[in-house]
Amino acid sequence: MTTVLTPPPPPAVTAAPRPDSGADPSPPPARPGLAFAGAALCVLAAVLLGFAANLTVVGHLQHARDQRTGYDELREQLALGTAPVGQRTFDGKPLPMGAPVALLRVPSLGLREVVAEGTTSGVLMSGPGHRRDTALPGQEGTSVIMGRQWGYGSPFNDLERLPPGASIEVTTGQGKSVYQVLGVRRPGDRLPAPLAEGRGRLTLMTASGAPYTPDGVLRVDAALTTPVQPSPPRPLRGGWIGPAEEALGGENGAWTAIALWTQALLIAALLTVWLHRVWGRWQTWIAAGPVLAALGVAVAGAATRVLPNLL
Q1: What is the pTM of this model?
Q2: Strands 167-172, 200-210: parallel, antiparallel or unpaired by DSSP?
Q3: pLDDT per residue over 44-98, tens digit each?
Q4: 167-186 pLDDT tens trace
Q5: DSSP 8-state assignment for residue 24
Q6: Residue 114: strand, helix, or coil
Q7: How many Cβ atoms sit within 10 Å of the Cβ of residue 226?
Q8: Among residues 164, 166, 145, 137, which one has the least CA distance to residue 228?
Q9: Is 107 exposed, middle or buried (0-12, 13-18, 19+ CB in 10 A)?
Q10: Are the C-beta atoms of residues 106 and 166 closer than 8 Å to each other?
């Protein structure tokens, strides 16, 4: 019996993949320029979203939280008889910036706000502030309270709707004082008559103009209708406050915080770009998204302190 030997088949030849076939799974070489561009876009997006959040939802939530805290602190001080009535605390220490000093109520607007000491942009993030070189509400002289028009709870957004004759109630460590609105004063309007000796006046101030674009200061003047409260000695007279506490002033000292938070945000953005290359898109954004958002809000919050305090 004859056996026929069959030669083995020739080896298969595999064609080398073309450069444009997509068969090479290795990632393209890193390009530092693209990485920095991606990080810059992350920083820009985080800051813009942070600004929008700070001037709307996050800012309003911060204002509501600070108001609750300030109300609890002021109510306890009123109960204990330790609420401030001047530039010093009950034990003789200088009254710190941001300390609650009064409860402001405007029944016709449904407004109830805790007033803090100071009128810097940072203080007014928590609610209205008392200008420190003026008398406290209820005392002789003119007391000035400033508040934001739109951002951080927008407590003074409706001041221009106050009609003459409306009442304003302010409670301090000396009791409740009632004021009667004289009128709304806009830039260029006539100044009110000089205040007579032994009389009191309250001036509420906020920004005028379109939302988030103030072009001046709106004032509401009100005359004290209840008895004048005693005025303790004031070691610091009128006019001693700095530009940051003037109407539409900003805090130049906030630039240091802006620089530090921006550096942290840039580092986080660079790490995000690197993780995107080695880890994957969805895993990276799930992990890095909240971090970038939080740092963006922090940068925007620090930058808001440089903006006008009545914004």
Answers
A1: 0.84
A2: unpaired
A3: 888 888 878 887 899 999 999 999 999 999 999 999 999 999 999 989 899 999 9
A4: 999 999 999 999 999 999 99
A5: -
A6: strand
A7: 14
A8: 137
A9: exposed
A10: yes
Provide the total of helices (H) and of strands (E) in the chain, helices listed first. 5, 8
Q: How does pLDDT run across 127-166, given as a tens digit for each residue?
A: 999 999 999 999 999 999 999 999 999 999 999 999 999 9
Q: In the structure encoding, which two tokens stand for residue 27, read together? A: 């990632």
HSE at residue 111, side-chain half, CA atoms within 13 A, is 27
Q: How many CB atoms lie within 10 A of CB 15?
A: 6
Is there a contact between 227 and 174 (Cβ–Cβ < 8 Å)?
A: no
Q: What's the chain's Rg over C-alpha atoms?
A: 31
Give the pair of three-digit tokens for residue 285: 């954004």
* Residue 264, both tokens: 């942290």
| Rounded distance between C-alpha atoms, residue 232 and residue 272, angstroms | 57
Q: Which residues contact 141 (CB under 8 A, 6 or more apart)?
A: 134, 135, 195, 200, 201, 231
DSSP classification of residue 238: T
